[in-house]
Design goal:
Elements: E1 5-9, H1 15-27, E2 31-35, E3 47-55, E4 58-59, H2 61-74, E5 79-84, E6 91-93, E7 96-98, H3 105-109, E8 118-121, H4 133-138
Parallel strand pairs: 1-2, 1-3, 3-5, 5-8
Antiparallel strand pairs: 3-4, 6-7
Domain Flavodoxin-like: 5-143
GO molecular function, one term: FMN binding
Region (Disordered): 120-143
Length: 143
């Protein structure tokens, strides 16, 4: 049985769209890749993957609007998300953690049954200068 997946992405400059395309290609032929601003219904999918950049302290606003609109239907389907940020390390300021894993907090807290996977990709967490050309290619880095 072929997995029917929806990869829904929010983007400002195109990086999240490219990441969504890579996720979609990895998931296979039964995958549909749609901009979140088109509000695709998550109904009838076996998996929904959210791909979004971080702006402020969480995913780009249209992604959260999409989740709010389809929250009830999204509770019924397995979910995963990929958040993209330049820096995923996080800092402690005045005794509180800012950034890092907290970027995913709005997505996790949006659901009664949270997404089963959470990832962030950041420039500071990926040191391409020490990678061989083969490693860069296998990880999707072109430069």
């Amino acid at each position: 049985m072929e997995l029917k997946a929806l990869v829904v992405y929010a983007t400002r400059y195109g990086s999240s769209k490219r990441a969504a395309e890579i996720v979609g290609k990895t998931l296979g032929e039964g995958t549909e890749i749609v901009n979140v601003e088109k509000f695709p219904s998550p109904e009838s999918y076996d998996l929904v993957v959210f791909v979004a950049p971080i702006y402020g302290d969480g995913p780009l606003k249209p992604m959260m609007e999409y989740i709010e609109r389809y929250k009830e239907k999204l509770e019924e389907v397995p979910k995963a998300f990929l958040l993209l940020a330049l820096d995923t390390s996080g800092v402690v300021f005045r005794g509180e953690l800012h950034g890092g894993i907290l970027y995913s907090k709005p997505l996790v807290e949006a659901f009664e049954v949270p997404p089963f996977t959470a990832s962030s990709l950041g420039a500071s967490s990926t040191r391409t200068s020490s990678m061989t050309t083969t490693e860069k290619f296998s990880k999707g880095f072109t430069q």
